[in-house]
């Protein structure tokens, strides 16, 4: 019985390791906006968001070499969301603000400015559309829609809160955070 259990454990561990190796070998090619603005980008992970049983988007995280999850904001990163359904840009901005508020108190006037800025940057999306955000610490966030520049928000506090939606400790989706950071150092 003990030998059988040990062999079973080894088989499971081997399969998990092989799955990880396969995932690393088949890392996706960075989107053009990622490759152009973060040329040494390393694929960290991906995850799919489901909300009330509906698939919303597939997320991919690209990071600079040396990126450490525990030092969020010390290295540049890019997050791409490929939408799996149609959504209004205003709804994306409003949901983003709700998630940003989860991270701690936020001045109402500042939240209003950030919401207005996001509403200008985030277009309505259809199934298959891609929004990519790039955070260069100290510079704020830049955004692309299907590879075309959409705008930027030159506020590093905004960028920290925005990317914290997916990568921060207070995220509402800890499993997604873990999957996105799977390839990054702790």
Task: Tell me what you see in this structure.
- This protein is 41% helix and 25% strand.
- With 186 residues, the protein is of the alpha+beta class.
- The protein has a single domain (29-180), classed as 3-Layer(bba) Sandwich (Chalcone isomerase).
- It has a 6-stranded antiparallel sheet with strand order 1-2-3-4-5-6.
- A hairpin with a 3-residue loop joins strand 4 and strand 5 (140-145).
- The longest helix has 24 residues, at 2-25.
- The radius of gyration is 18 Å and the shape is globular.
Q: Output the strand order for the largest sheet.
A: 1-2-3-4-5-6
Envelope shape: globular
Number of continuous helical runs: 6
CATH class: Alpha Beta
Broad structural category? alpha+beta
In what range is the share of β-strand residues?
15-25%
Catalogue the unreliable spans. Answer: 1-25
Structural domain count: 1
* Biggest sheet record: 6 strands, antiparallel
| CATH fold assignment | Chalcone isomerase
> How big is the Rg?
18 Å
Order of helices and strands: HHEEEHHEEEHH
**Got a strand count?**
6
Identify the CATH architecture: 3-Layer(bba) Sandwich
Distance between the termini: 37 Å
Report a brief summary of the structure.
The protein is of the alpha+beta class.
């Amino acid at each position: 019985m003990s030998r059988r259990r040990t062999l079973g454990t080894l088989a499971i561990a081997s399969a998990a390791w092989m799955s990880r190796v396969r995932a690393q070998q088949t890392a996706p090619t960075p989107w053009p906006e990622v490759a152009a603005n973060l040329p040494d980008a390393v694929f960290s992970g991906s995850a799919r968001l489901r909300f009330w049983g509906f698939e919303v988007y597939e997320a991919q995280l690209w990071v600079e070499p040396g990126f450490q999850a525990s030092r969020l904001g010390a290295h540049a990163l890019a997050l791409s969301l490929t939408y799996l359904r149609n959504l209004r840009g205003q709804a994306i901005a409003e949901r983003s603000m709700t998630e940003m508020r989860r991270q701690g108190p936020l001045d109402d006037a500042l939240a209003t400015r950030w919401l207005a800025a996001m509403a200008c940057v985030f277009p309505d999306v259809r199934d298959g559309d891609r929004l990519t955000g790039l955070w260069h610490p100290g510079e704020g966030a830049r955004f692309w829609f299907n590879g075309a520049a959409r705008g930027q928000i030159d506020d590093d506090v905004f960028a920290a809160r925005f990317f914290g939606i997916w990568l921060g400790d207070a995220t509402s989706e800890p499993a997604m955070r873990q999957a996105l950071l799977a390839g990054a150092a702790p």
